């Protein structure tokens, strides 16, 4: 077989099962696009910013669990997409980012649109490549997909100089597509020790992290919670692993958790952490997190074991394989006293959601969205107050339903990620809940959504401010407000219509719930502007640097 390097890349992507790529062409990757044009197999989505392309790919990968692909050109194309790749690294999302690079003879000469992509991408990827010959592509492409999907998932970056794309190559046989390595198995002795510790514990809590989602082991985690009657907390990344209305669910832990959740963790004597990395937003002051508890920590990434909290028992293994082995030997336990204590904490320290029945309030709006979109809808958010209100109030019921930027906390994530989800799951309702500050970061992808005819409902909780910054300045900086209130805000409904989307502005609607019902009933992309008072705070909130038990429950608490 004989073809160019660019043709080889496209054919290898087809063999990996790729059927959709988001990206933007430029001088250094035009041969790739020319090869794509000659093959009708892969659909290309033209984003309006390379960061949008990276987040569209994340939406695909987060909803399917499989590696997704994004394209960008050299120089500013690569620098623009970098944030989306860094975001994927911190949230363990499998991506393959392919960029064009200037010809090899020009590398290091400060050529037009040349930057050191290899060096720049090194700290924000699982692995990266600067391809030096067309022959290397036969191994690099499959290997990139294997690495992205194996162990702890993550992004892999392939930088291909233009002369490599144009070079001719002859070969006799196709390489096998890259697939994930076999999951790491736990040691039988460690599983037996974990089972004994769970049996001995009087007040254990199950702590689920994003690894439960990535390992497709939500059902097994639920089985463990039910068999041993374990109260269960979830990180932001694990929401949906256990339905929010499950009897054992305590919801999200940490900075914006329900009071009873953080107080239950104060009393637990065994913490069973599965696929969680003890992030500071979950633990608060780590020296005072679960002060009376022994810790079982199971993670696929050995570097996470003991990095933040030294465990009593550390197990380097796939969470799903560990649960399978544990459930094979763990007997059933009722734990009536501990679960009665949990019920008492819920009654005496409830999660307050003021205005939950009023769609003009944050919690009421989230509940109304859940009613009209359906509980099974995919929900993407940006970063800020709206993100935390959604995490607290939306009734998540399944894994891969919740798409949010957890580790990097990237404003601008929501709309393109929702678009990726809608393209991946065209029969499933998709909602993007955003804030006005976040939405302005990547609002240009409204054009992409309209062009694709994606069935997305975008709800902007518009308080004309950077709401969480405004809240922290109010609570922790003596109400010295600076650069957190927008003096001029756009007409979002007008913006949406100008970009080809339909729009509803709840500011002028006498019946907000009826307006929401009508908006969600429309096909295709619709933007909904929902005015929100800047005085509304997302509470509880653990003060920065504080212990979780020190959470602020009311706006006047400080």
What does this entry look like structurally?
The protein contains 22 helices and 20 strands. The chain has 558 residues and is an alpha/beta fold. The strands form 4 sheets. The protein has a 6-stranded parallel beta sheet with strand order 3-2-4-5-7-6, sandwiched between helices. Helix 1 (5-15) runs parallel beside helix 6, helix 3 (50-64) runs parallel beside helix 4 (76-91) and helix 15 packs parallel to helix 22. The N and C termini lie far apart (71 Å). The mean pLDDT is 97.
Notable traits:
558 residues, alpha/beta, 6-stranded parallel sheet, globular
Low-pLDDT segments: none
The structural class is: alpha/beta
The description of the largest β-sheet is: 6 strands, parallel
Shape: globular
Terminal CA distance reads: 71 Å
Radius of gyration: 24 Å
Mean pLDDT: 97
**Number of helices in the DSSP assignment:** 22
Secondary structure tally: strands: 20
Adjacency order of strands in the biggest sheet: 3-2-4-5-7-6
The level of helicity is 25-40%
Estimate the strand proportion.
15-25%
List the helices and strands and how they pair.
Elements: E1 2-4, H1 5-15, E2 20-23, H2 30-37, E3 43-46, H3 50-64, E4 68-72, H4 76-91, E5 95-101, H5 117-121, E6 127-130, H6 134-149, E7 155-161, H7 162-166, E8 168-170, H8 188-200, E9 204-208, H9 210-214, H10 218-227, E10 232-234, E11 249-252, H11 259-267, E12 270-274, H12 280-283, E13 294-299, E14 313-316, H13 319-327, H14 336-348, H15 362-373, E15 378-381, H16 385-393, E16 402-403, H17 414-424, E17 430-435, H18 436-439, H19 445-452, E18 456-462, H20 467-476, H21 492-498, E19 502-505, H22 512-521, E20 526-531
Parallel strand pairs: 2-3, 2-4, 4-5, 5-7, 6-7, 9-10, 9-12, 10-11, 12-13, 13-14, 15-16, 15-17, 17-18, 18-20, 19-20
Antiparallel strand pairs: 1-8
Helix pairs in contact: 1-2, 1-6, 3-4, 3-17, 10-13, 11-14, 15-16, 15-22, 17-19
